[in-house]
Amino acid sequence: MPESAPEQMRPILVEAAQVVDAEQIAAIYNYYVANTVITFEEQPVTEIEMAGRISDVAALGLPWLVARSAGEPGSEQSVGMILGYAYATRWKQRVAYRYSVEITVYVHRDWHGQGLGRVLYTHLFERLQAAGVHAAVGGIALPNAASVALHESMGMTQIACFREIGFKAGRWLDVGYWQKVF
Prior knowledge:
The protein is of the alpha+beta class. It has four helices and seven strands.
């Protein structure tokens, strides 16, 4: 377990996502689609759609990571259960942006506040740096104090805020962008 993980965190494994993980990843994501304004998608994502997204990221040579439960002797925790995920996609299509990515992290709703987002981002950033990525950008639907705190704890700084750029759940929403230059 990385040194940055809190002591109360149960054992986890961070590894590359596989297409077979799509069902669990979609379940984590669809909670946010249905119950929050964190994502601007309004319809649940199918397992097939999620599998396609995982494949698309892999085809770009970018990381999509999952954090899995490693389990503990005598625990009720399911070994292999996906607890969260993080990935990077191209920031923009133009060639001049080839060293920049947009990053995303989602944590299972039962795992909030345990440092899992930080663990996932730590692993993601290591892989991005090794791949020669120069800048990472993350968008946050605002307000979202927990996500802002996570991104800033990872050394990211706010670079933009688009006012009332999205409309979901009957209201206009702002989106802030945080950036880290490696």
